[in-house]
Design brief:
409 residues; alpha/beta; 13 strands; 38% helix; six-stranded parallel sheet; single chain
């Protein structure tokens, strides 16, 4: 059996909740050994407590972001906990965190803090606003960033309020950007023998994803605004349309798709009018064009339109609910649902990583219990035997018995 592509990568993840764990779960799926460093004083990753479906330090939210990882509890504020952490740094490729921008310096987990231990260590920080700039000390969350970076101003109906995406897309995008940054830095460290910092932020991610809207504004003073039924800002038709029973998305990104589309509509007389002849013409007369299309599409059901549009090769899709999307035949065909076995939740189904590099992982492991791999990881990676483990425990490396009663077991 071929090895997974990242099986020779070890990452210490001082991570919690969504953005950070979302970035590293893809690396874990690809074979990286991701060791979650969890703080016993606070019950570990706060995602363990996220409702609904949360009980005694386990939650389905936590399962979604932490499969195939290991958990080690360490109190990094204690000398003994720091001792263990630094020993783990010496045998790892990266320290990955998602904390407020000024916290990595306070915790001593930047490259300049750790290079004396391992010159090749990569220190990747994913924070709300980065380690520099006037907002560096501010906490940053997906909701705030979608507002601050202008995303909400272009989401929703023109006469409606600013609207957040239904998914935490800044968090998830930030996690992926952090994963790319981390892997790039590890590659550089292995090539050059010198590690580095990766100062990644949700703010930079959100601003960077403005892409062509930002380019249009910066160069032509374009003012992005919300569009009718989520219409594309320049392509017509390319938006949501109501049918007789639900909604459909149709996108004519090329002239040939427009020509096929109006053929499916039955080539109404207006389709041949000069004002709709080209992409530029339809953009200039978008309101009239869209209204005529809406009148046509309202005559039949979504299923009826999909059958004809798909047969003609017109880009289109139904607007599914989440349950419908998960039941799509293509979801199963692409292997996008994986299962793990959990003693509390039984068989846990969740969506797979979309990242592909060779053959995907055949089997997945459930997310770890708090501190589940502490003793084993220290034994296997650092050679810590029972007596040494007891010493470290007694000195507070893993928290107190009140914090983590399993330590005495």
């Amino acid at each position: 059996m071929s090895r997974l592509p990242l099986e020779d990568v070890r990452i210490l993840a001082v991570e919690q909740y969504g953005a950070g764990p979302f970035g590293s779960v893809h690396l874990a799926d690809l074979g990286a050994e991701v060791i979650k460093i969890e703080d016993p004083r606070f019950g570990g990753d706060v995602g363990r407590l996220t409702p609904p479906y949360a009980e005694d330090g386990d939650s389905l939210f936590f399962e979604a972001f932490n499969r195939n990882k290991r958990s080690v509890v360490l109190d990094l504020t204690s000398p003994a906990g720091r001792e263990v952490f630094e020993k783990l740094v010496s045998v790892s490729d990266a320290v990955y965190s998602n904390l407020r921008g000024d916290v990595p310096a306070k915790m001593g987990i930047r490259y300049e803090d750790l290079e004396h231990i391992n010159p090749r260590i990569v220190c990747c920080s994913l924070s709300g606003y980065g380690m520099t700039g006037p907002r560096a000390k501010q906490p940053g969350y997906d909701y705030m960033l979608q507002g601050l970076a202008g995303w909400m101003s272009v989401t929703g109906e023109p006469d409606g309020p600013p609207t957040k995406s239904g998914l935490s897309m800044v968090d998830y995008s930030g996690g992926l950007v952090a994963a790319i940054s981390l892997l790039s830095a590890i590659h550089g460290a292995r090539r050059d023998g010198v590690g580095s910092d990766c100062d990644v932020s949700l703010y930079d991610t959100a601003i960077g994803m403005l892409t062509y809207l930002a380019t249009w504004h910066l160069n032509a003073d374009f003012e992005p605004r919300r569009t009718h039924h989520s219409a594309h800002p320049s392509l017509v038709p390319f938006q949501n349309f109501p049918t007789s029973d639900s909604w459909i998305v149709i996108g004519c990104a090329k002239q040939k798709f427009w020509e096929k589309f109006v053929t499916v509509l039955g080539s109404p007389s207006w389709a041949a009018e000069e004002r709709f002849a080209t992409t530029a013409d339809r953009y200039a007369n978008s309101a009239a064009c869209v209204k005529l299309i809406e009148d046509e599409l309202a005559r039949r059901s979504t299923a009826e339109w999909l059958a004809d549009l798909e047969a003609a090769g017109v880009p289109c899709a139904p607007i599914n609910t989440v349950p419908q999307a998960l039941r799509e035949e293509h979801t199963a065909a692409r292997g996008m649902v994986v299962t793990t076995e959990h003693p509390r939740f039984g068989q846990v189904k969740q969506v797979a990583s979309p990242v592909r590099a060779g053959e995907p992982r055949a089997e997945h492991q459930r997310a770890p219990f708090l501190g589940e791999h502490t003793a084993a990881a220290l034994r296997d990676l650092l050679g810590v035997q029972d007596a040494e483990f007891r010493r470290l425990a007694g000195e507070g490396a893993f928290g107190t018995e009140e914090d983590a009663p399993w330590i005495s077991g």
